[in-house]
C-alpha cells in the first residue's frame, strides 16, 4: 500500500512569509497527526485529527499556525507569518482508529528553513 | 507531564558489537512504549513496541523490555551491522497508538565496518 505522502520535501522562506505543507495519509486511516521536529530534538505533536475533527491542538501556536483536514482525508498545515524558530522538519503521520493495530505511519517530512 | 529521557549520542560502534541505548520515562497512568528508527533520508519507522509491564518487543534482532519498576525500555541488539546506522527514538503514548506520541531526543548510531 502507498505510504503517507507529503509535499514539498524542502522549503526555504524568509521570516514573516507564509508557507503551507500538504499531507495525504494512508487510505482508510482516520487519524492524522502533524509533528514538528526541531534539529536535535524528538518530534513534538502539533495537532491530531480524527476524521475531520480536531482531537488535540494544545501545542499548536494558534497565533501563527493553522491546520485543516478537508473531508477527513488530506490535510494542510500553514504558518503565517513564519519566524526563525519555525525552522524544523514537519512530519505527518496517520493511523487507523479502530482494529488491532494503532501504529502511526510517518511520511518523509517537509524540511522548512526560515531565513 | 509525560516525558522520555534517552541516552545521548552520537554512539559509534564496530560491526558485530553489542548495542544498548538507554531509555527511561515519566508518565501518568500506564503508557505503551515504542522504539522508532529513522534511516538516512527516510521517514520514521516503528521498530518495536510493548504495551504492558514485562512485555518484550522485538524486531530485526533488536529487543526491549518494558520495566515498570525502573520505568525503562532500553534497546538492545547482540550484534550490530553497518545497516543499523540510523537515529533511534524512544517514545510513549498513553493509549496504545491512537494517541499522541511523546518522543525522546533521539540517539544517532553509527556502525563502522
SSE map:
The complex is a heterodimer of chains A (115) and B (113).
Chain A: E1 5-7, E2 10-13, E3 19-24, E4 31-37, E5 44-50, E6 53-56, E7 65-68, E8 75-79, E9 88-95, E10 105-106, E11 110-114
Parallel strand pairs in A: 2-11
Antiparallel strand pairs in A: 1-3, 3-8, 4-5, 4-9, 5-6, 7-8, 9-10, 9-11
Chain B: E1 3-6, E2 11-14, E3 19-21, E4 23-26, E5 32-38, E6 44-50, E7 56-59, E8 62-65, E9 75-77, E10 86-93, E11 102-103, E12 107-112
Parallel strand pairs in B: 2-12
Antiparallel strand pairs in B: 1-4, 3-9, 5-6, 5-10, 7-8, 8-9, 10-11, 10-12
In brief:
Chain A has strands spanning 5-7, 10-13, 19-24, 31-37, 44-50, 53-56, 65-68, 75-79, 88-95, 105-106, 110-114. With 115 residues, chain A is mostly beta strands.
Number of strands of chain A: 11
Largest sheet of chain A: 7 strands, mixed
Average of per-residue pLDDT values of chain B: 92
SSE topology string of chain B: EEEEEEEEEEEE
Low-confidence stretches of chain B: none
Instruction: Supply the number of helical segments of chain A.
Output: 0
Number of helices of chain B: 0
What fraction of residues of chain A sit in β-strands? over 45%
Q: What is the CA–CA distance across the termini of chain B?
A: 41 Å
Largest interface: A-B, 26 and 21 residues
Helical residue percent of chain B?
under 10%
What is the number of E strands of chain B? 12
Reading the helices and strands of chain A in chain order gives EEEEEEEEEEE
Percent of sequence in beta strands of chain B: over 45%
Amino acid at each position: 500500500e502507498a505510504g503517507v505522502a507529503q509535499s514539498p520535501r524542502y522549503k526555504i522562506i524568509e521570516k514573516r512569509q507564509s508557507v503551507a505543507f500538504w499531507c495525504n495519509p494512508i487510505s482508510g486511516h482516520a487519524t492524522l497527526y502533524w509533528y514538528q521536529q526541531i534539529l536535535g530534538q524528538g518530534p513534538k505533536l502539533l495537532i491530531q485529527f480524527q476524521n475531520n475533527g480536531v482531537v488535540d491542538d494544545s501545542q499548536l501556536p494558534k497565533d501563527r499556525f493553522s491546520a485543516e483536514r478537508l473531508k477527513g482525508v488530506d490535510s494542510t498545515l500553514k504558518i503565517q507569518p513564519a519566524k526563525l524558530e519555525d525552522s524544523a522538519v514537519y512530519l505527518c503521520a496517520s493511523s487507523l482508529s479502530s482494529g488491532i493495530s494503532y501504529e502511526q505511519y510517518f511520511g518523509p517530512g517537509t524540511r522548512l528553513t526560515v531565513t | 507531564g509525560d516525558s522520555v529521557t534517552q541516552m545521548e549520542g552520537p554512539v559509534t560502534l564496530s560491526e558485530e558489537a553489542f548495542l544498548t541505548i538507554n531509555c527511561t520515562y515519566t508518565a501518568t497512568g500506564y503508557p505503551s512504549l515504542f522504539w522508532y528508527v529513522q534511516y538516512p533520508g527516510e521517514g520514521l519507522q516503528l521498530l518495536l513496541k510493548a504495551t504492558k509491564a514485562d512485555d518484550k518487543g522485538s524486531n530485526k534482532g533488536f529487543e526491549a523490555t518494558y520495566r515498570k519498576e525502573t520505568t525503562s525500555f532500553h534497546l538492545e541488539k547482540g550484534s550490530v551491522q553497518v545497516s543499523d546506522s540510523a537515529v533511534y527514538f524512544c517514545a510513549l503514548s498513553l493509549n496504545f497508538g491512537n494517541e499522541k506520541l511523546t518522543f525522546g531526543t533521539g540517539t544517532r548510531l553509527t556502525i563502522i565496518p
